[in-house]
């Protein structure tokens, strides 16, 4: 719609329509083939001779479409624009109506505005922004997407939250000790209590919670990212006991197992440094380094 001389190349991947996820309509076709046919239909409705090609790339989604020429003369551009608008409106869903209300205009006003725009003469200046012509209120994504999965939080902040939550679990109730025989001696290791995510959140200060809420997943994501220390199951937070973890497969040759075990120790063991009972595993069995001298 930006220009009569515009051409296009598209490599369909994720199944999306104009206003949300693509809804299947034919069970006799695979979802991928049905979606490809839909994309080809979009190109045809937009007035293109649509060509299909299969790229030689290492991907299961490698069917592409190319539009190099139009099916109508330039004089019929206004009529074609109206046809495109009607096609877009015909694929709207109820979910979009609620989205329209959130951004401050009604579904009726939106559709009416599009039809009025489609019926008018196309603008002389094709550089005019498409958002004001075709899609009132449309907000494109930023050129640089912000990473919001707790990975970009300051390391000091993350370490502080991890230590606070771990101490909370260790001191939440009667100590739960797990017994383990090592070298013939009985050792007890405090595994602490388990708490719900809500209970953990109630013990964190407002500033910490505010910072976590700005990230996708918030507290739960941060705890799962620190899987060395925590285990989150069914909405409850536990301190991970590495003695219960499944041992690695012994199918590799002995030399390769020894080399991979040595190379794996690239991080310090949190329990060795912070847990009151130290690590539940001996140094040779722990996948993390007990002291900086073990780091590789």
TrEMBL record:
<comment type="similarity">
    <text>Belongs to the TRM44 family.</text>
</comment>
<keyword id="KW-0808">Transferase</keyword>
<keyword id="KW-0949">S-adenosyl-L-methionine</keyword>
<dbReference type="GO" id="GO:0030488">
    <property type="term" value="P:tRNA methylation"/>
</dbReference>
<dbReference type="GO" id="GO:0005737">
    <property type="term" value="C:cytoplasm"/>
</dbReference>
<keyword id="KW-0863">Zinc-finger</keyword>
<keyword id="KW-0489">Methyltransferase</keyword>
<dbReference type="GO" id="GO:0141101">
    <property type="term" value="F:tRNA(Ser) (uridine(44)-2'-O-)-methyltransferase activity"/>
</dbReference>
<dbReference type="GO" id="GO:0008270">
    <property type="term" value="F:zinc ion binding"/>
</dbReference>
<feature type="domain" description="C3H1-type">
    <location>
        <begin position="263"/>
        <end position="293"/>
    </location>
</feature>
<feature type="zinc finger region" description="C3H1-type">
    <location>
        <begin position="263"/>
        <end position="293"/>
    </location>
</feature>
<protein>
    <recommendedName>
        <fullName>tRNA (uracil-O(2)-)-methyltransferase</fullName>
        <ecNumber>2.1.1.211</ecNumber>
    </recommendedName>
</protein>
<keyword id="KW-0862">Zinc</keyword>
<dbReference type="InterPro" id="IPR011671">
    <property type="entry name" value="tRNA_uracil_MeTrfase"/>
</dbReference>
<keyword id="KW-0479">Metal-binding</keyword>
<keyword id="KW-0963">Cytoplasm</keyword>
<keyword id="KW-0819">tRNA processing</keyword>
<comment type="function">
    <text>Adenosyl-L-methionine (AdoMet)-dependent tRNA (uracil-O(2)-)-methyltransferase.</text>
</comment>
<dbReference type="InterPro" id="IPR000571">
    <property type="entry name" value="Znf_CCCH"/>
</dbReference>
């Amino acid at each position: 719609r930006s220009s009569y001389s515009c051409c296009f190349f598209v490599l369909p991947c994720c199944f999306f329509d104009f206003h949300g996820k693509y809804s299947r309509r034919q069970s006799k076709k695979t979802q991928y083939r049905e979606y490809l046919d839909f994309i080809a239909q979009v190109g045809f409705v937009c007035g293109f001779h649509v060509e299909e090609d299969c790229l030689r790339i290492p991907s299961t989604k490698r069917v592409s479409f190319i539009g190099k020429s139009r099916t109508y003369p330039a004089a019929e551009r206004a009529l074609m624009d109206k046809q495109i608008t009607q096609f877009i409106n015909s694929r709207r869903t109820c979910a979009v109506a609620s989205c329209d209300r959130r951004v401050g205009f009604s579904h009726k006003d939106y559709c009416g505005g599009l039809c009025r725009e489609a019926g008018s003469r196309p603008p002389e200046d094709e550089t005019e922004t498409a958002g004001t012509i075709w899609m009132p209120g449309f907000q494109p994504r930023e050129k640089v997407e912000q990473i919001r999965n707790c990975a970009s939080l300051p390391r000091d902040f993350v370490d502080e939250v991890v230590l606070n939550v771990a101490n909370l679990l260790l001191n939440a109730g009667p100590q739960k000790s797990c017994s383990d025989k090592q070298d013939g001696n009985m050792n007890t290791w405090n595994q602490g209590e388990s708490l719900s995510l809500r209970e953990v959140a109630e013990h964190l200060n407002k500033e910490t919670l505010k910072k976590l809420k700005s990230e996708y997943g918030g507290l739960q994501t941060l705890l799962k990212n620190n899987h060395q220390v925590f285990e989150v199951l069914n909405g409850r937070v536990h301190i991970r006991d590495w003695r219960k973890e499944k041992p690695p497969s012994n199918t590799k040759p002995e030399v390769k197992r020894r080399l991979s075990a040595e190379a794996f120790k690239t991080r310090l063991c949190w329990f060795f440094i912070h847990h009151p009972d130290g690590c539940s595993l001996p140094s040779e069995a722990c996948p993390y380094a007990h002291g900086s001298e073990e780091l590789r």
